[in-house]
């Protein structure tokens, strides 16, 4: 496994160097990603489309086709459409959900396609030639360590999960492992599907059920927005910290400004899809081949370093 902060610029350089090595036959790379149903996936769509435009303009022997899907079932159908009547040299996929996409991606793999999986790993990791993701265990662990420090190792927490995927499981694993030897108590933990509205409603339920909550962890920033709105409307003063994850620009701005309730953040850049596309092409043309697992670092974003992670023109 590689640990890296390598995002698109380095990968672009690899592809530019490889331009003379492209074969005469056009190579087809399908990119299958969820539709922009929340902020992070909006960033993924933005960066995937940008990469496709750059590659298709610069390299006439490569065709990158991007397809977005609003559900797991739609993504299964999209894979069938993408592979119908033509051979895919590579598939770059961010699965809508791990379990439902594993068998369909295996079918594409069995046809001789190079498989790059991004972010949400498949249930069967052997299908993946290349897996690129942020370090989700570190996202959960680093958040928990901060809470332990600031709360003195004790207090009542509520947690909001995303959707049932490998990355959600890993974030929760990292968090739970970090707090298990402390007196921090998780009062409740439920799914809010990485959705701000659902998180708002779930946080309202938490507030109604529990008279003393010291901190909240929503393991995604879209959910954190809903949490913060619910806390604001409630007028509750017991909640000292509400933390998220992913590096949404609105949350990073709060960190920059020294927000008392959300003073830190962990990055999980949607631009990783762009890196995955360039790395996949590099594998196909024999330049700097990378297989296996590439993990991007998840350092804590604080007021001191937040400017490095703040991109006001980004969709996320």
UniProtKB/TrEMBL annotation:
Signal found in the keyword field? yes
| Signal peptide per UniProt | 1-23
Q: Where in the cell is it found?
A: Cell envelope
Does this entry carry the keyword Signal?
A: yes
Q: Name one Pfam family in it.
A: Peripla_BP_4
In this chain the Periplasmic binding protein domain maps to 29-287
Keywords of the record: Signal
This protein's source sits in the domain of life called: Bacteria
Report the PANTHER family cross-referenced here.
D-ALLOSE-BINDING PERIPLASMIC PROTEIN-RELATED
**Similarity comment:** Belongs to the bacterial solute-binding protein 2 family.
User: What protein name applies here?
Assistant: Ribose transport system substrate-binding protein
């Amino acid at each position: 496994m590689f640990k890296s902060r390598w995002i698109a610029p380095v990968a672009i350089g690899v592809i530019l160097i490889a331009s003379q090595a492209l074969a005469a036959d056009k190579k087809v790379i399908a990119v299958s990603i969820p539709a922009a149903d929340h902020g992070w996936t909006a960033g993924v769509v933005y960066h995937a489309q940008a990469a496709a435009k750059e590659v298709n303009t610069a390299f006439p022997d490569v065709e990158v086709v991007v397809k977005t899907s609003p559900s797991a079932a739609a993504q299964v159908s999209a894979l069938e459409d993408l592979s119908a009547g033509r051979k895919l040299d590579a598939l770059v996929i961010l699965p809508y959900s791990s379990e439902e996409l594993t068998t369909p991606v295996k079918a594409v793999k069995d046809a001789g396609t190079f498989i790059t999986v991004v972010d949400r790993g498949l249930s069967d990791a052997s299908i993946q030639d290349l897996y690129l993701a942020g370090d989700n265990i570190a996202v959960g662990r680093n958040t928990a360590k901060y809470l332990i420090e600031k709360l003195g190792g004790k207090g009542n927490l509520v947690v909001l999960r995303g959707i049932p995927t490998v990355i959600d499981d890993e974030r929760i694993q990292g968090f739970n492992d970090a707090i298990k030897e402390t007196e921090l108590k998780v009062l409740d933990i439920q799914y809010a599907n990485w959705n701000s509205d659902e998180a708002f409603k779930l946080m309202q339920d938490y507030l109604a059920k529990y008279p003393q909550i010291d901190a909240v962890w929503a393991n995604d920033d879209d959910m954190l927005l809903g949490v913060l709105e619910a806390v604001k409307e409630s007028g509750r003063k017991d909640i000292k910290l509400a933390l998220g994850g992913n590096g949404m620009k609105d949350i990073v701005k709060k960190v920059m400004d020294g927000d008392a309730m959300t003073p830190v953040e962990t990055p999980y850049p949607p631009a990783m899809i762009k890196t995955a596309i360039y790395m996949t092409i590099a594998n196909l043309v024999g330049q700097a081949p990378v297989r296996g697992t590439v993990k991007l670092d998840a350092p804590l974003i604080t007021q001191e370093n937040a400017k490095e992670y703040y991109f006001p023109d980004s969709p996320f």
